[in-house]
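Record 1 of the preview.
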Amino acid sequence: VREAVVSTQSTGVENLTDIIRRRNSEQIFWTGSNPEEQTKFWDWNWVVESSDNTREFLIHYIRYGIGFIKNIPTDLSMEEILHDKMGIVRALRKTVFPDVDIVRYKNNPTNSGYGSGVLPGHIDLCYYNQLPHVQYFISLENTVDGGESFWVDAFSVIKEMQETVPEYVEVLSRIPVPYRYTPPGSGTFQTTIHPIVNFEKLHGDIYQVIENPWNSDIPMFTRMYPEETRSTWWEAYLHYRGLIEDPARWYERKLLGGEFVVLDNWRVYHGRKEFTWKEGQERVVATSYMDWNHMASRIMSTEVGDHVFLEIDQH
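->
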């Protein structure tokens, strides 16, 4: 409680606890037609100039579900960016991918994210029971033709559906969908089930969206439910997915080297347009994940984050 009070005084932000808890009343929903403040690119040197500046940027990220930084030196590692410069605790989320995954073009890859084709909008790692909440991207180099990134605010979509087709929202929040990740030859078998939409229990806020067309286990879905249930779900899902796929809702940009994105992986879809690769060209992105509490701690506390073990002498 003391830290929250200090943080509020330091940042000049009221309702900080509600911001950290992602109350919809403290969030700003957006579409491609109203992205001006949401798409603000914060200068790296300003963000790390002071603790308060870092926290102001992170509060902006929570409100919009996305935050952009420009002019990051591309020789900095992800740990140097997040911990040494921004003061976020060293706690990258362990997944089936490397802690810092370097995504660059590969010919005929197993995972389409490493190829050059279109990546429809999606939420990452839906096959985890608790999928990572915070996702970091840094563009290290981008000299290919095409390959624009785009982002979609799914909370804006759900809010609109609550007003126009609430029965579809009820279906998408009630019927769980199976997800699976079993890349050939890897020995990995990740599987779980989630409804697409989850609401916060106390206030009924939109809390989490979980959906990825590649990881949906449709054969298992067919086995799980009778035809009537499946038909009801597909009707609601196709309406929802049609809104996600509407380019008018997208914010689109070709990320340049030194541009950094922080993403709410429980709210904002990301995708990529097709690009053409030629010899000597590169499209290289480093990505990492983190659980929400570690990032939120950086806002709530005036101190730079680090691991705390209760059994150390100086505690």
